[in-house]
Specification:
The protein has 600 residues and is an alpha+beta fold. Helices cover 22% and strands 18% of the residues. The protein has a domain of 276 residues: FAD/NAD(P)-binding domain (3-Layer(bba) Sandwich), CATH 3.50.50. Strands 1, 2, 10, 11, 12, 13 and 21 form a seven-stranded mixed β-sheet that branches. A six-stranded antiparallel β-sheet has the order 7-15-16-17-14-20. A four-stranded mixed β-sheet has the order 4-3-19-18, covered by helices on one side. Strand 11 and strand 12 form a beta hairpin. It comes from Formicincola oecophyllae. GO terms for molecular function: flavin adenine dinucleotide binding; oxidoreductase activity, acting on CH-OH group of donors.
Length: 600
């Protein structure tokens, strides 16, 4: 294990693997520190071990052990935050590949207005349309700037999909709301299962614009530019929460890490829990600091280690990146009373609810079949694709049928819908009807940032190393509840056009608090956001820390607000964007890449 490296990367998921590959290819010595165990798909993902639902979905083998390290959670500042000790609302991954190993595979690009939402809202509706308690911000980077890096990510992942336009010309029956592309998808779209085909028919009958969900589940055999191979998806239904024994679902473990095994000047350490980044005054002055080393705990030997670094990349899960910044003194912690400071500010989630549609007994949906990113969606109520003026809220949501494979144990937990028997002959009947003849339909919505939602260090609870746990203050706000209720109000009409015999709409209730016990999504974001103003962002537009220029923080932590899509596609594009500017600009002259308050 080297005691010094040109760059130390914390985390081995999509962000960490992309940064490691790009910086190592540029000639840097790279050390990657991963807190969890080694996970190689050929071993850990082997059939049939990898598709054990009890081990994966119930006992959650790919997810973080919350005993030594977790977060504390409260809904409001007046409550006592308590540790999140049982996996519920969100499931942080751990081990090689991180969340990129257990994800489902939906592979979206951000909408152009997602990246400039504040500007778009002001242009359409004026500044007064933005609630006073909402910290709405632009990313500081445009879709046109990121477009080549979306391409790069999709071709490494082996994305399957259908474009609407390519270079301004109609290319297929993709999402008509999607921005133009310079290249088509590397692979054709996945086949549509029966439930998705029904949704397409029903949505089109209602005048909406259905399209196949872009997926990082290979529709055909594929070899990416790194020489890594993927096999075609067979719709086994074991995607989210599982390795992919078919090598069909893109993951860092399949698509990137094999290209680095055995390379000189590359070191990966698992069971390495990073404790802090050591800082010193920067010789450049101007109040800047410089990262000198990374301190970490070696789980294999039970010893504390220190690795010197010329540059540090924080590329872990969103919560981990923000926590390390707070523990290390990188950036000013956010103060919600004064609305000052940047680290912990603009913590966001996603506003997601699920509905269920029951069909006739002769319509078999075969829910055990599925692909993690497979399905059909509409974007008619996403982002700025509709008129928000008379509605009085900001944000939106796609609606989709994403049949990713319903497993037997999971199917029994919600059989029959709300208010149905949970035992006896009626339960058995409802379980059969739900499993064989129903369809899940999701509203996968945005979540705005608010002044009274933030992350900070908990004054009471500590982790196994004596450090303060990070505290999350979060609940649903009226803006997002009204958005969710508006979007889900269109589900019954679509369901009726699909031939539904019964519909149960899932939507948030006015004033409903965030419930940590029920799973929603692992799409957490914000807390160390990017931007062009150091007063409201922790990172500049290249994901470089304003105050510590040799630290870059890569992940969904950079999102100023939560969008209607899952974050992976944008995280990957931003990682390639940041790596490109590190290699082509920063390494030639290490310095702040942006003037304070001025984008470059």
């Amino acid at each position: 294990m080297p005691r010094k490296a040109d760059v130390v990367i914390v985390g081995s998921g999509w962000a960490g693997s992309i940064m490691a590959h790009q910086l190592h290819r540029a000639g840097l010595s790279v050390v990657v520190l991963e807190r969890g165990p080694m996970r190689k798909t050929a071993i850990d993902g082997a059939y049939p071990y990898s598709i054990d639902e009890l081990r994966a979905n119930v006992r959650k083998r790919l997810f973080e052990n919350l005993a030594p390290q977790t977060v504390t959670i409260r809904n409001t500042p007046h409550q006592q935050a308590l540790p999140y000790r049982q996996l519920g609302a969100f499931l942080p991954g751990t081990g090689l590949g991180g969340g990129g190993l257990h994800w489902a595979g939906c592979m979206f690009r951000a909408m152009p207005d997602d990246l400039r939402l504040r500007s778009a809202i002001i242009e359409r509706y004026g500044r007064k349309f933005i609630p006073k308690d909402m910290n709405l911000q632009d990313y500081g980077v445009t879709y046109d700037e990121l477009e080549p890096f979306f391409n790069q990510a999709e071709y490494v992942f082996g994305a399957s999909g259908e474009a609407w336009t390519v270079r301004g010309k109609r290319a297929g029956n993709g999402d008509p709301f999607a921005p133009d592309r310079s290249k088509p998808f590397p692979l054709p779209p996945l086949r549509e299962v029966y439930s998705a085909a029904l949704f397409r028919k029903g949505a089109a009958a209602c005048g909406y614009h259905p399209y196949v969900i872009p997926a990082a589940n290979a529709s055909r055999p594929y070899t990416n530019s790194y020489g890594c191979q993927l096999g075609p998806c067979n719709f086994c239904g074991y995607c989210s929460g599982y390795d992919c024994f078919l090598y069909s679902k893109a993951s860092p473990n399949i698509c990137i890490w094999p290209a680095l095994w055995g390379k000189k000047n590359f070191t990966l350490r698992t069971d390495a829990h990073v404790l802090k980044v050591d800082l010193a005054r920067s010789p450049a002055g101007q109040g800047l600091k410089e990262a000198k080393a990374v301190e970490w705990y070696d789980g294999e030997t039970g010893t504390h280690q220190r690795t010197e670094a010329g540059m540090v990349i924080l590329a872990g899960f969103q919560l981990s990146n923000v926590h390390l910044m707070l523990l290390s003194g990188i950036g000013q912690p956010y103060d919600p009373v004064r609305n000052t400071g940047v680290v912990g500010r603009n913590f966001v989630y996603q506003t997601i609810t699920s509905s269920r549609v029951w069909l006739r007994p002769d319509q078999h949906t075969n829910q055990f079949i599925g692909a993690g990113g497979g399905g059909v969606a509409i974007d008619d109520f996403n982002c700025t694709n509709f008129d928000h003026g008379p509605l009085g809220f900001i944000g939106g949501s796609p609606i989709w049928v994403n049949q990713s494979g319903l497993k037997p144990i999971e199917a029994m937990t919600g059989a029959g819908g709300h208010g149905q028997p949970r035992w006896g002959s009626d339960f058995k009947h409802q379980a059969l009807e739900t499993y064989r003849h129903s369809i899940g339909m999701d509203a996968h919505g945005s979540n705005m940032a608010y002044r009274d939602v933030w992350l900070d260090l908990d004054p009471t609870w500590k982790n196994d190393w004596g450090q303060p746990l990070m505290r999350m203050t979060f609940t649903w706000h009226d803006n997002d509840i009204r958005m969710n209720r508006f979007v889900t109000s269109h589900i019954p009409r679509i369901a009726e056009a699909m031939g539904a015999v019964r519909v149960e709409v899932g939507s948030l209730k006015p004033g409903e608090p965030f419930d940590v016990t029920q799973y929603k999504t692992t799409h957490l974001a914000g807390g160390a956001v990017m931007g062009t103003d150091p007063r409201t962002s922790a990172l500049n537009r290249y994901l470089q820390c304003w105050d510590v220029p040799n630290v870059f923080v890569v992940g969904s932590n950079a999102f100023p607000q939560g969008m209607g899509y899952n974050p992976t596609g944008l995280v990957a594009a931003l990682a390639y964007w940041s790596a490109h500017h590190i290699v082509t600009d920063y390494l030639k002259n290490p310095r702040p890449l942006c003037g304070r308050g001025v984008s470059s």
